[in-house]
Design brief:
361 residues, Rossmann fold, 12 helices, binds zinc ion
Length: 361
């Protein structure tokens, strides 16, 4: 997810009040460790890589709790909330979830996140409701067999699209509060998929666990994107595919996080000061260029690395203002022509990275 994560916001909330009748059932990795073919997911300790026995590590003895009924393998929290506050927020959302739907739960989220002002809130809500259309576009690029991990699955738009398409999909996100919303989305659709709270750089899976790893607008939110790509390559099976979309650093459009033109053209060290001046302290996720993304994939040992300007799905632009729909239409037309396609690879609004882990499929 892009924007709602970027402005998930600090909170000053009270501890959660969860009535016993609606405390969710505790789930553990072992609860959902099989796919339709009966292949168990290989769970491994994100700290020491030893195999995980249900919710504790046989190697380092670390205990992994459940939060809001979801396995929590985080070693640290995201940049917006510390772990106790994050778990509290997830708990409050989980308490509301049984009595509402996806849209209601997303609205409840922003009602308890007052630092996101009204206009932005509307945009983020639209983004959440739109997420399955965008997810469908990525799912359409994946093979229809094997097990897929989405890193940074947010509110689960892609997970829903993948589950609907019959894929064996697992979702992870650093924010358990978003996973609670994702679970509501799946429940609304009568779908299910394992969802785990985990850091993108330290995943709770054994080596070579997945046929594909997907990451939509995740790399720019990480402190160490290189470590993350290396970690994603680790959990890919030989011959498995990494598929990532992210906003392009050198896009000739506004930065999607802080709405500033050509932010990415500044030297990185000047970006925080510029954003503070223009936007009053918002943290700008440092978008990567197509070339930077390509170098990370190669450094992680991935092969057949291709970075392209992806087609933006019509369904995704449907709910957008007219000028954006026209801009997206023009972009899609331009990317079909060889000359402008090369320009869009460098300066388009987003890039698609596809790479393969070496070895036989
Ligand atoms: Zn361990």
């Amino acid at each position: 997810m892009i924007d709602q994560r970027a402005r998930a916001g600090a909170i000053t909330d009270r501890p959660p009040v969860i009535r016993p009748s609606i405390v969710p059932r505790r789930r553990t990795p072992g609860d959902r460790a099989s796919d339709s073919a009966g292949t168990a997911i290989g769970w491994a300790c994100p700290a020491c890589r030893a195999p995980l026995a249900v919710d504790s590590c046989a190697g380092c003895g670390r205990h992994y709790p459940a939060v809001a009924g979801l396995p929590d393998f985080r070693l640290r929290s995201d940049r917006y909330l510390d772990l106790p506050a994050e778990r509290a927020k997830a708990g409050r959302l989980a308490a509301l979830a049984p009595s509402t739907d996806l849209a209601g739960l997303a609205e409840a989220y922003y009602a308890m996140t007052p630092d996101v002002e009204g206009r932005r809130r509307g945009f983020y809500l639209l983004h959440i409701l739109d997420a399955e259309a965008r997810g469908s576009a990525l799912v359409g690029l994946l093979s229809t067999s094997g097990r897929v991990l989405e890193v940074g699955c947010g509110t689960g738009g892609l997970i829903a699209a993948a589950a609907r398409a019959g894929l064996d999909v697992v979702g992870s996100d650093i924010a358990s509060r978003w996973l609670v919303v994702a679970r509501r989305r799946l429940d609304d659709l009568g779908l299910s998929a394992p969802l785990v709270a985990a850091s993108a750089e330290r995943l709770p899976f054994a080596d070579a666990s997945f046929d594909a790893v997907v990451a939509d607008s995740v790399l720019e939110h990480l402190d160490d994107p290189g470590a993350a790509v290396t970690e994603w390559a680790r959990v890919l099976k030989p011959g498995g595919t990494l598929l990532a979309w992210s906003p392009n650093r050198y896009a000739l459009t506004v930065d999607p996080h802080v709405r500033l033109w050509a932010l990415g053209w500044l030297p990185r060290r000047l970006m925080p000061g510029y954003v503070r001046w223009r936007r009053g302290g918002a943290w700008p996720p440092p978008c990567l260029s197509a070339g930077e993304a390509r170098r990370l994939a190669l450094a992680a040992g991935l092969e057949s690395v291709r970075v392209e300007p992806p087609a933006i799905p019509e369904a995704w632009s449907r709910a957008r203002p007219a000028w954006q729909r026209h801009a997206i239409g023009a972009y899609n037309a331009a990317r079909r022509m060889a000359g402008t396609r090369a320009l869009l690879r460098s300066f388009g609004p987003l890039w698609q990275l596809r790479a393969t882990r070496e070895g036989a499929a």
